[in-house]
Amino acid sequence: MDQSGQSVLPFLETGHYFEATITAADPEVSGHTLGSRPDLVNPDSADNTTDNIAQNFQYQSAALKLQFVPNFSFGILYDQPFGSDLHYPLKDNGSFSDTALSQQGTQVNIDSQNLSLILGYQPFKNINLYAGPAYQTVKGDVALRGLVYAEFNGYNAKFKQDAALGWKAGFAYQVPELALKAALTYHSKINHKINVEENILGTPLLLIDNAKTKISTPQSVNLDFQTGIMSGTLLYSNIRWVNWKDFVIHPTQFGALSELVTTTLSNGTYTEGFNLDDYQKNQWSATLGIARQLTTKWSGAFDLGWDSGTGNPASILNPTKGYWSIGLGLQFNPEANYFISGGVKYYWLGDATTQDSTYYLPLPGVSEASQVGQFNNNHAIGYGLKIGYKF
């Protein structure tokens, strides 16, 4: 879900500056149902695998920074911070797909866009204080299919696009002569109230009066640092924290149906239902890299990355646990005031056991009973292309 990284580094460039970036990813994510769960495979099938469920995707970002006067700067940042695109193929085993009626697999598609305005104040030469509003749109679709979802097989939710406001703020310390830059940036959570159309295989789900679904995209903190370590060589790093533990998707009708199901299954012991999707832990990620000027026009970079993920067992709609990565980049400066750069990054995606949302019910044995799959030895390749221009 954490897609762009929400960087504000373009705003910290000197003078007037513009950049645009396009990023593409080619993930391979597959798994299988647990051997201890033969009930999740159609009796006439000996195949318990999922095949690749991750779709190729791309996203864009752009930034414009203007230094009107020495002490004040203004910036516009556009990015697509959060997203997901998973599609379980239709398979005869029926584990994560419906072979009887809809002929579809479990799917999730989430798209978000952010447009931020930032005003910076430089009270001293090396200090930059900045803050501004963020306008965000979110939309998505979810389809639950297969034996793993039991009573919820056939559930569909269409999250209509919603727009809401948040904010970001931070401060930076820079010494250009040393290529030293340190910045701490906070991004607020953004509260959305979304109209959701819910149905079961096309039949509207209307157990209670409909109401908008509240979803808050998570707050986050970025710490960026770079410094020159010798002539023509730069050390850079980023640490990021994202508050996924407080992220919840709980549509109105889904919630009502889950309350009915849990009340029945527990004989009235538990009546609170469960969420369509949520996460156990907050996400931490870190990157450490080194860049080296190769000639007057060419430079290269190498970095290592780590991501904690959001807990294990993981959601069926997000069946990985973090990653390790290695990246290579190359930059060409035809002139001193503009550049073109590109890079590739390989990700070793963390192994995860998947579970349905009943994992969070506070009942003995539910955690183990709700584990349905195992996803191991997965990977992804990311590609990026950026242009930057100082004027």
What does this structure look like?
By secondary structure, this protein is mostly beta strands. The chain has one domain: Porin, CATH 2.40.160. Helices cover 5% and strands 55% of the residues. It is built from two helices and 27 strands. The protein has helices spanning 252-265, 366-369; strands spanning 17-28, 32-33, 57-69, 72-79, 83-87, 97-98, 104-105, 107-121, 127-143, 155-175, 180-187, 190-194, 196-200, 203-204, 213-217, 220-230, 233-242, 248-249, 277-278, 283-293, 298-307, 314-315, 323-335, 338-349, 352-355, 371-375, 378-390. Strands 1-3-4-8-9-10-11-16-17-20-21-23-24-27 form a 14-stranded antiparallel beta barrel. It is elongated, with a radius of gyration of 23 Å. The protein starts with 16 loop residues before the first strand and ends with a strand. The model has no long low-confidence stretch (mean pLDDT 95).
Short description:
With 391 residues, the chain is mainly beta. It is built from two helices and 27 strands. The protein has one domain: Outer membrane protein transport protein (OMPP1/FadL/TodX) (Porin, Beta Barrel).
Name the features.
single chain, 391 residues, mainly beta, Porin, 14-stranded antiparallel barrel, 4-stranded mixed sheet, 2 helices, 55% strand
Element layout with pairings:
Layout lengths: L16 E12 L3 E2 L23 E13 L2 E8 L3 E5 L9 E2 L5 E2 L1 E15 L5 E17 L11 E21 L4 E8 L2 E5 L1 E5 L2 E2 L8 E5 L2 E11 L2 E10 L5 E2 L2 H14 L11 E2 L4 E11 L4 E10 L6 E2 L7 E13 L2 E12 L2 E4 L10 H4 L1 E5 L2 E13 L1
Parallel strand pairs: 22-25
Antiparallel strand pairs: 1-3, 1-27, 2-26, 3-4, 4-8, 5-8, 6-7, 8-9, 9-10, 10-11, 10-13, 11-16, 12-15, 13-14, 16-17, 17-20, 18-19, 20-21, 21-23, 23-24, 24-27, 25-26
